[in-house]
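Troubleshooting: if your tokenizer reports a length mismatch, compare your output against this known-good record of 447 residues.
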Amino acid sequence: MGKKMDSIEEKVMPIADKFANNRFLLAIRDGFALAMPLLIIGAMSCLIANFPVKGFLDFMTSVFGPGWKTFFDIPNQVTMSLMSIFVVIGVSKSLAESYELDGINTAIISLVSFFILTPFTTDFIPKGAKAAIKVDGIIPLDWMGAKGLFVGMISAILATEIVRFVVKKGWVVKMPAGVPPTVSKAFSSLIPGAITIVLFDVIRLIFAFTPFGNIHKLIYTLLQVPLTSLGATFGANMIANFFVGFFWSFGIHGADIVQSVMNPIWIALSGENLAAFQAGKVVPHIITQQFNQIYLWIGGSGATLALCVTMMFFCKSQQCKKLGKLAILPGLFNINEPIIFGLPIVLNPIMLIPFILTPMILCIVCYAAMATGLVPKPNGVLIPWTTPVIIGGFFISGIRGAILQIVELIISFFTYLPFIKIVDKQYCDQEKSYETADTKDENAVLS
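Known-good structure output:
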């Protein structure tokens, strides 16, 4: 078994390393990480305005009047409706800094480039009218939110690459040595910015002559909608979770790699759910970022919180017991590196089986529960991934979501139990052999 694992590791590691160190995937990951605090603030504002406890809503109405929700709706609209802007800035800044370019100036150029590709028109239906009229001179929030994510990421990467090319060629304004650094930086981005903006304006003109009218509609129709629809499927989510565990089995952060690819899709799905939830409509999607982070990764990748409990109370070896006690507290906040590297799960054929299988089993259970209506679909609220079990389920699916997480803990417990028992027996045998060896050494010294 060891030779087989070594052989697989030799083949997988180069591929995994390419994914883990891919400059563009890292920029996308870091870009979303930069945007996430603002998105969480907006989503939590929406959650307060639509809290799943009627008594709380009645209390707020009685104290602050029927319009109290507006106070919390505004932060949500400002953050979630401008999601693409935050991502453009984050992705471009991260990518630029990886090239040792000025991150802020490049991010501003990328943002302007994104706006150039965005049509400053929208369709509006006046009250009482039957047909929509086109209104010019406004920025449509549709393309600033989840619908514009893919164009935002493409704009950020393309604009940054153009700036890098221009700077590498030396086509920059170089100021004398006595000029303040701030002024020098501003002028150094003049030519790269001008070339980038002109090229993006040409791209805008090209797409204006297509049946779509602009690149937003083309990308959304031909790329984002199909990819989002695919990412929302049960099968795609099962594959994604398999690779999370598979990469972790070689010590590579599987969740980071998979989320760098899937987060644009999962967060777009979350945005659609949140918009429906806020409007009081039926939430459309089961698969979202919250579905994975809150329901499938309880205790971290592999759903290892139940494993910590098993080790604490049902194992006999001191190694398992002590590690379980050490890992339970971070596990409550979905941090499980102590278990992954301490047990270990990495390169451990016995523990890799439940580590990969458990989230996939939970995916089946949760998807079935939501598809049949037993548990509400995730409301799209982007709560922190460190939110403890039961609290997280309650926030995104109400009391039935919290109950579902309890059921998941039980399922995870029984999935891990037979495998950890095997490992525990191995550790018990090792500890006994160490004790025997120590006793022999003591007797030898005494004699």
